[in-house]
């Protein structure tokens, strides 16, 4: 993990100017930073720098640095390094992470003039579910505690990544293996804090530290699924009921799932596509169940979302080398197929292009 000097980042952010502010949350602010002369090596030339806005935010930021340093996997925003405090100051460190230029899922769903199609929505859900599953499977286990659309960022490669680990907690699963109880806080991590999260996404069962467990993330992810399918805000004061859970779950239970679908885009075309979206809604309803025991583990959620994507015949987005490489790959493959087709008779092959992504950036 690279350590940047305060002076280096101060220049890269234009002295933390307002024009480079790309997000602001309750604990801190995030700035776009362009490193002078390029980054060199493995460090990208453009990064995002997060700094705390108050003393409590400093503790949250240190926690986020520690969790991200241990949670390196494709579904989590990449930690690039840290910023040392300014010379002669008593300030805390800052966080440097990859810059996600395609913004947040929240903006894609609620501010974009072109809402994403159904395959893209299920694909994003699968990316995030896989990330949460990996966090829950780690040792010590990581409970994110703030899974929401504003904390799901979209990369240039098309992948969705989970961000903002300021509320995350590491817990040990060994102490409670086989007893069915909630995991205990890991001795090497921060103690189990008081319940926290975002209204609308927060698990109503999570009312005290002793109830901290992966099922709280499952509930929050279920809310994200409902948000993805419906395009509705999680808390809408102009609607009745205002909660997306209280509105959607009864409709799904009554067999009127079509009433939940986002009406800004065409309904899923074909029986397979309809069943795929219904399958996603069924998983969402289980995730937000009032009974914790009825909520599925994230491994099961991942399996269901993968099954929905495959059963509908929706191609998954290519992530290997970005859009340019994907275009070159398709061109080479097309030429190869043309060459083969001229030599032997084959059936026609149709390729579909990747989905477009939003360009507005938002961090929380």
Automatic annotation (TrEMBL):
Pfam families attached to this UniProt entry: PK_Tyr_Ser-Thr (PF07714)
Q: Which residues form the Protein kinase domain?
A: 16-309
Source organism lineage? Eukaryota, Viridiplantae, Streptophyta, Embryophyta, Tracheophyta
> What top-tier enzyme class does this entry carry?
transferase
Residues where ATP binds: 50
Q: Which GO terms describe its molecular function?
A: ATP binding; protein serine/threonine kinase activity
Protein name (Swiss-Prot/TrEMBL): non-specific serine/threonine protein kinase
Provide the reaction this enzyme catalyses: L-threonyl-[protein] + ATP = O-phospho-L-threonyl-[protein] + ADP + H(+); L-seryl-[protein] + ATP = O-phospho-L-seryl-[protein] + ADP + H(+)
Its family remark reads: Belongs to the protein kinase superfamily.
> What Enzyme Commission number(s) apply to this enzyme?
2.7.11.1
Which keywords does this Swiss-Prot/TrEMBL entry list? ATP-binding, Kinase, Nucleotide-binding, Serine/threonine-protein kinase, Transferase
């Amino acid at each position: 993990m690279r350590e940047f000097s305060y002076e280096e980042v101060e220049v890269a952010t234009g002295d933390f100017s307002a024009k480079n502010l790309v997000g602001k949350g309750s604990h801190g602010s995030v700035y776009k930073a362009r490193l002078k002369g390029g980054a060199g090596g493995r460090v990208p030339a453009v990064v995002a720098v997060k700094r705390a806005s108050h003393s409590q935010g400093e503790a949250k930021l240190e926690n986020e640095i520690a969790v991200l340093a241990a949670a390196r996997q494709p579904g989590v925003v990449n930690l690039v390094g840290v910023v040392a405090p300014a010379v002669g100051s008593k300030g805390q460190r800052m966080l440097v992470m990859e810059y996600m230029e395609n913004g947040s899922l929240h903006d894609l769903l609620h501010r974009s003039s072109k809402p994403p199609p159904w395959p893209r929505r299920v694909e994003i859900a699968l990316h995030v579910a896989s990330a949460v599953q990996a966090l829950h499977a780690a040792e010590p286990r990581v409970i994110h505690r703030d899974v929401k659309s504003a904390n799901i960022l979209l990369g240039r490669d098309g992948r969705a990544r989970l961000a903002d680990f300021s509320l995350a907690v590491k817990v040990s699963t060994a102490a409670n293996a086989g007893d069915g109880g909630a995991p205990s806080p890991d001795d090497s991590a921060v103690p189990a804090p008081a319940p926290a999260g975002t209204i609308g996404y927060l698990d109503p069962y999570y009312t005290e530290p002793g109830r901290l467990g992966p099922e709280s993330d499952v509930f929050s992810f279920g809310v994200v699924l409902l948000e993805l399918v419906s395009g509705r805000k999680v808390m809408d004061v102009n609607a009745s009921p205002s909660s997306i859970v209280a509105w959607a779950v009864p409709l799904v239970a009554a067999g009127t799932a079509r009433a939940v679908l986002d009406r800004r885009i065409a309904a899923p075309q074909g029986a397979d596509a309809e069943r795929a979206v219904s399958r996603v809604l069924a998983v969402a309803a289980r995730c937000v169940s009032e009974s914790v025991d009825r909520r599925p583990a994230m491994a099961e959620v991942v399996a269901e979302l993968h099954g929905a994507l495959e059963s509908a015949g929706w191609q998954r987005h290519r992530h290997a080398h970005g859009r340019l490489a994907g275009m070159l790959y398709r061109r080479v493959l097309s030429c190869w197929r043309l060459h083969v087709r001229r030599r032997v008779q084959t059936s026609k092959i149709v390729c579909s292009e990747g989905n477009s992504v939003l360009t507005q950036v938002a961090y929380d």
